């Protein structure tokens, strides 16, 4: 049932740090886009702070599954006619209303312009087999930290197709994500092609992760600064997605501290000292260690899958190394 015209929805379930991430996202949205309603899907509906930060608190439905499988049901969860689904590990640094305006009229979409084509290799899907199976020439590749959709029959059919794919994901050549079911991005990408839905070229203005960072990472969640080079493109996203390792990075913790302090009516900033200088110099390495320490003990299936994949790649890696050494010796 639709109870509001436009709004933002996110998830917070499982480990407590996901709950804290969702709160940080809400603080940033309340600062920069205060009039846009916020909804949260959670297994902690009685958390008082969460109830204060979100307009709608929606109980997680366990029957929908774990991990990102929940995202495949976002259509049924959303109380909005026009929905932006934003991952909880994002931070808004400026008003996001322009994203609704840009997407309006599309049934389902994501930001991006990259397509997988015949011969391309991808971590999460067998590209050649999928293209041949569905008689396609390309597959959209995007980050699932931001989705847009509208409530209508076309979109409902789109999500039904995605759910069908999720039940047969292994036969479709879709790889396991973190040792727990299929990757939502490739399922949605395939469904987009079959339902004639397209990505939106946002020129790095809507949402980006710092994965592929080159040089400095300039971001200030309070003043609206957000500019960095991602691979070969300079981007300035309104939503910075601290995906994967980046959620453990000192820069993320610095920015969410600013948002918390602002909530408390304090302008207190993180002080610079020798230890913080070292922390920021080796921020990514520190983040990687934090990431491993948090997830390895809690997700042995994921580690087993990664080790299995590495062992399968080992013969080819050894061959490659041998070829390189052979070339050098000539």
Would you list the SSEs in sequence order as H and E? EHEHEHEEHEEHEEHHEEEEEHHHH
Query: Could you estimate the helical fraction of the residues in percent?
Result: 40-55%
What's the mean pLDDT score? 87
**Net shape:** globular
Please outline the major beta sheet.
6 strands, mixed
Largest sheet, spatial ordering of strands: 3-2-1-4-9-6
CATH fold topology of the largest domain: Spore Coat Polysaccharide Biosynthesis Protein SpsA, Chain A
Structural class: alpha/beta
Beginning-to-end CA distance, first to last residue: 71 Å
What count of helical segments does DSSP give?
A: 11
Which CATH first-tier class of the largest domain would you pick? Alpha Beta
CATH-derived architecture of the largest domain: Alpha-Beta Complex
CATH superfamily of the largest domain: Spore Coat Polysaccharide Biosynthesis Protein SpsA, Chain A
SS strand fraction: 15-25%
Low-pLDDT parts are 324-328
Question: How many separate structural domains?
Answer: 3
Number of strands: 14
In angstroms, what is the radius of gyration?
Answer: 21 Å
